[in-house]
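Hi everyone,

Forwarding the result from last night's run.
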Amino acid sequence: MLAAIGIALTAMACSTSPQANRVLAQGGDSGSVCSLNEAVTTASATYSPNVDLSASIALPGETGVDVVMTAAGAIAAVNTADGGTLYWVNPATGDISKTVELPGEVSDIAFDGGSVVAIASQNTLTRMDAVSGETLSTLPLTDVKRVAIAPDGHIAALANKTVYVYDPNNAEVFSRERNYTQVTDVEVMSCDGQQAVFVTSFRNDRFTVDGRTNPVQIARLESLDFTGKVQWSLFGDSSETIIQNVADTRLYRATMGRDGYLYIAGESAGTATIFRWRGEPMTDEEQRGRTDPFLSRIDQYSSLHNSGAAHLPYYARVHPTEGRLVNAQMSFPRKTSDNKANAMRLGDIATGADGTLHFGGGASAFIANRDNLTLNGVSVGEYVGGDRAWMAIAPDFQSRKFWTVLAKESGKGKVIGVDVGYGYSAALSNVKSGTVPITTGTTEGKIFLSFTAE
């Protein structure tokens, strides 16, 4: 079957040390996307400027795509000159146990929390066994870019601006085109009788202030039932209500956390933004910026003063069935020259069973406490433009566990994929220049995968 569809599977030796087998022995994760754990919203965390990496390795390829944590280890997706490749990596040691090559470039991967990985590659949706790497099924879908899979096997996919849902046997449940400028991501929930597809997007619009018409981008999150009908939405404000919330906003990511909450992330061009509020139609006080924002504040790196129009990341916890924001925040660097907010671009988000939100992206100068950051006790490299930023935000959104830079020496790049589970968190980086901290293997490459124990 593998040869018939042009997929090669190569098995490699696994480490047999007790530490290396830790991730395999757990056999499951303590969290579930099907069980809402409300206790996480009040759980705190302690910040550390040091992050101990259990493993950090270079992966062959041209660009990294994403990483998912499974009971069999991390599965990282990369693209090469010849197509896509999946690597099974032990997070304790960095050992690669399997390599699966795909004939087309990979655009996204997702894990059902049990035994199946869903892959969006060139015009194809693939279900693959998360342990063996065996292809279970393929489904043609032109221009598919994003994919999600629920524990019961339902798959949601995004191709151009159309959302598709398939049942566990690959029969189409529904498809709906979304009429927005860009439709950016999908997530699916299907368990315990609750079914929904979550869609992120933004539209181009125009607003008028003092007789002048100005362009603006307006983000939107919506929940569709399994007939394709909109159940609820957040943001998507009408242009007439923008007034003092004129920053462009975009939502890029939606993911079900292993605590049962939905998490979203995007970017705003500054902090005069609709992201300050609850996502519901803004009150007059909110439209005019006369009331306290809903956003949580940790320190000056999440405070809305002196922000300008730099692209700043936004992330939030959403109740998946009630359609309301539970927590929301923005975090961003600040320049040392004038303390003005600086850009940080989103790569990916993920959330574990304890409610800790993991963020990956690329940051301009300078993230909090940058001069004192260490990896395995060694200072990170100097800033030369475009840090590979990796952050973990406490479940109550009141502190950070870490906010670090994946650089051994000066360098540029972006953390493009993150995930957490089975005792570890992972960050997949695309490197433009410089070096990353390596615990094993070659120090040369364009793609690096790093882990820390939870």
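The CA atoms of residues 46 and 125 lie 41 Å apart.

Cheers,
N.
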